[in-house]
Amino acid sequence: MERSQRAGAWYLTAVGLALCLIAALFLWLMGRSYLRAREMTQWPQVPCLILRSEVAERRIAENVAPDYRFAVLYRYGFAGRDFESDRWSLRGSMPRSEASAVEELVQQYPVGSTQTCWVNPKQPEIALLKLDSRAAGYSLWFPGLFFLGGLGMMIGAWKKSSAS
Fold first, then answer.
1. What count of Cα atoms within 13 Å lies in the side-chain half-sphere of residue 147?
2. How distant, in Å, are the alpha carbons of 59, 70, 101, 115, 164 from that of 107?
3. 114-136 residue pLDDT tens
4. Is the N or C terminus of the chain more exposed, i.e. has fewer CB atoms within 10 Å?
5. Which residue, 52, 35, 160, 63, is CA-closest to 106?
6. Residues in Cβ contact with 25 at an 8 Å cutoff, skipping those fewer than 6 apart
7. pLDDT for 162
8. For residue 132, what are the contacts with CB-CB under 8 A and spacing of at least 6?
9. Are 116 and 47 spatial neighbours (Cβ–Cβ below 8 Å)?
10. What pTM, to 2 d.p., does this model score?
11. How many whole angstroms separate alpha carbon 116 and alpha carbon 128?
């Protein structure tokens, strides 16, 4: 094998390895997100009473437009104890640039209404009104393509140079 061919094979190996590592990181993160969301569907559902439901305005600086979030507080019972939670979802309420988008949630969860919440049986102080999406699991094929592409790049680089 010629020296320049070997150098090219090492270069393609480095690029392929980088692709594999980055793809593996995304596969791990997305897989973990999917498994967590799938586990949440097994959490017990209990009724909860909405104590506070409002639009919370947050401004990070005087000259920056505010963002709006859904602020909620609810009470629920689990395993013979009463708990309170302010979590809409595991990651919290997404900030919105328009208060009207958050108003819809305030109307969906009015004060005094009884809703269904999901309680983490391992940590009953954690309850959610909205479960995480399992969409990450349906998208695992995309970083998988990059992982396979990186492997193919490395294999092809050495096959090509050993054939010469």
1. 13
2. 23, 11, 11, 12, 70
3. 999 999 999 999 999 998 888 88
4. C
5. 52
6. none
7. 63
8. 33, 36, 37, 40, 89, 90, 91
9. yes
10. 0.70
11. 9
